[in-house]
Amino acid sequence: MSNSLNIELTRDQRDLLLRGLQHVRSSVLLEMRKPSPEVVADRGSQLDSIESLVSHLEDANPASATAHAS
Q: What is the pTM of this model?
């Protein structure tokens, strides 16, 4: 069973998260680790998780800019 967390984001907050995920993806790709089947599988799993989150955020309908403004 998967645990999920529901939060409301403004468009700006969603865009900030998406930009941050670009850096996380780059970090995973550039991480210096000795190549092995386990490392390749782990890196692929991390990249798949990041891509899944990016897709989920891109498909989400962000809350209005006035909602939960700080």
A: 0.77
**Phi and psi at residue 58, to the nearest 5°:** -65, -35
Residue 62 token pair: 């962000």
DSSP 8-state symbol, 68: T
Instruction: Encode pLDDT of 25-56 as tens digits.
Output: 999 999 999 989 999 999 999 999 999 999 99
Determine contact, residues 67/14, Cβ cutoff 8 Å. Answer: no
Backbone angles phi, psi at 53, to 5 degrees: -65, -40
Q: Are 60 and 9 in contact (CB under 8 A)?
A: yes
Q: CA angle, corner 43, sides to 39 and 34, nearest 5?
A: 35
CB under 8 Å to 13, separation ≥6 — which residues?
A: 62
